[in-house]
């Protein structure tokens, strides 16, 4: 640990073998921080699928997703519920909802097929745990992934024990390693504060998650822990790094944690490619004063050539989203 004149404590991350490259196939699941990492990776040309079931907060919700991914099982229509002419699943976030009951099963099954295809190919798994609190339906004692804004009177609220969380996490690890024992599995605890549960309740939740994760990571060298929670709490440790809601890390904090994740997970060669892709990504956002000028047309062709060069050198990279932007503007 070191201190500096900016009144911060900066701690060194644990040394790990650099596991993330453009040969990686990545499945990222969990809370908002999993989406941040997964979306960043995908925007930089990595093969990454993020939160196919929508945002998940509890370890058991992630375990259910991995079970669907492993068995490629069809969705149980009995899990569908309705409120206000919107149809939901108790095993999925409201991102997967429709106004047509006949379509929701097909929608979810299509996601499961895509999830399974990614799961069997993936060699890097990234999971962010949001909370140890969970809900069950009073009517049948069923665990629900998301309450879909139904009244709280419909549910009972529970705090998972450390032992239950450990069991869920171990099941996740076992399922993945039975498919590919060389996979790298990364757990992290979300830096987002779940204050709707209460201040003390949020700390109890985070503590339970941290203790459970530590137990799993300590027992398996292929399972890693990235300290996003600790970076936010003990390194940044200031409200100027929070969004207006004082719960979520703001863009400055997100960028800082993302940079530390890069340094922790990527070797120098991969980071050089990331920097080249990032320049292309920023170029795609450029809005020219005169799109039809010879200078801008040359700029577009240069970017396309750079993309072609990167994709030819690194087979795992996918920059089609940027190539289409540049190609559409060529005259």
Can you walk through the features of this model?
The protein has 331 residues and is α/β, with parallel strands linked by helices. It has 2 domains: 16-266, 3-Layer(aba) Sandwich (Rossmann fold), CATH 3.40.50.1110; 268-331, no CATH class. The protein contains 10 helices and 12 strands. It is globular.
Helices, by number, come to 10
CATH architecture of the largest domain: 3-Layer(aba) Sandwich
End-to-end C-alpha gap: 55 Å
What do we call the CATH homologous superfamily of the largest domain? SGNH hydrolase
Widest β-sheet, arrangement of strands:
4-3-7-11-12
Topology as a string of helices (H) and strands (E): EEEHEHEEHEEEEHEHEHHHHH
Uncertain runs are none
Multimeric organization: single chain
Strand content: 5-15%
Radius of gyration: 21 Å
CATH topology of the largest domain: Rossmann fold
Number of DSSP strand runs: 12
- Percent range for helical residues? 40-55%
Our count of domains comes out at: 2
